[in-house]
Design goal:
Length: 340
């Protein structure tokens, strides 16, 4: 084990603790983690090719440097690193067999998996690391070499994960992808999971295990700088990304190009929103086991404003919503104030 390996293991140890670390400590560790990986990757953060997003028919793939900057979201970094570690450990404990992990959308660092790669024996795990961005993959290849992880069984694949066809000779025990923003907007998380789920066995573990989208509302009159997560109220779940929830869609839809999920009609009673002013989209993520990201705990779960309902809340509100997959994935809405 070389000095860089030891340094990463030391820096990332805080992410693998089950206790609630302080924000200051997690932010400091995330900063050190990113700084070291940038040094190892030899990336020029100002270079044009490192800052150009890739736009696909099913969403935006982040450019290399913006993808690297995701580490700064320290709660996201902690919970995904710990959830991934626990998932691998759980499978290895349950079985004496080797496991194969696919990480779709690694960015330049494979940052959510790297701490586990340095901690588990190379004899037990095979890795397939995939990204659509060749600049990111080139940086990742440099990092793996400098950490001597190229001695592990690792395959790097330059592919669009929304279209990747798993070879018949391969099967994956764990599939990791964090290619999303709050409200599942713009990035191709849903399309990636749909594509890979329809090619995987029922035993394949997906990380995150579940993404839930809720309609919600905010208590009236609280200044933005004083809002706490308790001031956001979940009203009704309108969408879920998980193996269980997507099964029926996968069974009835052979294509996911330019598709919409079934429209969901929700009613918010005037009695429940009388003290609210904003209609919101709320995101919650179950990564693995107890590792979660709840409303406003991460950039991935920031509330999104749908509408100001100050003039509508005298009546029940009907919201018709559907998730649309195209070059800019998003929720579409129709909002009607229903007179009593």
């Amino acid at each position: 084990m070389n000095d860089h390996n030891r340094e990463i293991i030391e820096i990332t140890s805080i992410f693998l603790e089950n206790n609630d670390n302080t924000s200051l400590a997690l932010a400091s560790a995330s900063k050190k983690y990113k700084k070291l990986l940038l040094q190892l990757s030899e990336l020029d953060i100002d270079k044009e090719e490192c800052n150009q997003h890739i736009h696909t028919t099913k969403g935006k793939a982040l450019a290399t440097i913006p993808a690297a900057n995701c580490i700064d979201d320290f709660m996201r970094t902690k919970q995904f690193i710990l959830g991934t570690y626990n998932a691998i450990n759980s499978l290895l404990t349950q079985s004496n067999q080797n496991i194969h992990i696919l990480y779709a959308g690694t960015g330049p660092f494979a940052a959510l998996l790297l701490p586990s790669m340095l901690r588990f024996s190379k004899e037990n795990i095979k890795y397939t690391l995939m990204d659509i961005n060749s600049t990111s993959l080139h940086a990742l290849k440099k990092i793996l070499a400098k950490l001597e992880l190229d001695k592990h069984t690792i395959e790097l694949i330059h592919q669009n994960a929304t279209k990747y066809q798993i070879p018949h000779s391969k099967s994956f025990d764990i599939i990791i992808s964090e290619t999303m923003q709050a409200g599942l907007a713009r990035e191709p998380q849903v399309s990636i999971f749909l594509n890979l789920m329809r090619q995987s066995s029922q035993s394949t573990l997906f990380i995150p295990e579940k993404i839930e989208i809720f309609l919600g509302h905010k208590t009236t009159g609280i200044p933005i700088e004083e809002i706490k997560k308790e001031d956001y109220k979940k009203a009704v779940k309108i969408f879920e990304v998980s193996k269980e929830a997507l099964n029926s869609y996968i069974n009835t839809n052979t294509e996911i190009e330019n598709s919409s999920f079934d429209e969901v009609s929700s009613i918010l009673k005037k009695s429940s929103i009388k003290n609210s002013d904003l209609l919101l989209l709320l995101t919650e993520i179950n990564i693995f086991g107890n590792q979660t990201l709840r409303t406003q705990e991460s950039g991935l779960t920031l509330p999104l404003i749908i509408d100001n309902i100050s003039e509508k809340k005298q009546n029940d509100i009907i919201i018709k919503s559907s998730y649309k997959i195209d070059k800019q994935p998003r929720f579409e809405y129709q909002i009607v104030s229903q007179k009593s």
